[in-house]
Amino acid sequence: YMMKCYPEIKEKEEMRKIIGRYGLTGKQQVSPIRNLSDGQKCRVCFAWLAWQNPHMLFLDEPTNHLDIETIDALAEAINDFEGGMMLVSHDFRLIQQVAQEIWVCENQTITKWSRDILAYKEHLK
């Protein structure tokens, strides 16, 4: 899939290195995308996004249908991303790994939460 999207990358090994950063190894790297699991397909999408070199990402519930290993790979990719990002998520684990600021939407307002996500989780109880 990635080789079709980026024909300017002539070397298969270079592309394998790129998608390998997102946890796709061996057979997964050369399998048709239809043969990959949902989590593996998400990893291909994240590699594709990174290759686009965007300045800003908007991620809405990006951990839906992902296993823990893929969520950790996503968190690492988010932390390595040099652009701006808005992340909407109910996944406290991901938020704890990546959030620099937390904004809360409730009662038809958006306010900045001054503490960490674990304190917010306690606040919800």
Automatic annotation (TrEMBL):
Q: Which SUPFAM superfamilies match?
A: P-loop containing nucleoside triphosphate hydrolases
Cross-referenced Pfam families:
ABC_tran
Kindly indicate whether the keyword Repeat belongs to this entry.
yes
Q: Which InterPro entries match?
A: ABC_transporter-like_ATP-bd, ABCF, P-loop_NTPase
Q: Which GO terms describe its molecular function?
A: ATP binding; ATP hydrolysis activity
Q: Which UniProt keywords apply?
A: ATP-binding, Nucleotide-binding, Repeat
ABC transporter domain residues: 10-64
Source organism's superkingdom? Eukaryota
Name under which the protein is recorded: ATP-binding cassette sub-family F
**Organism encoding this protein:** Ictalurus punctatus (Channel catfish)
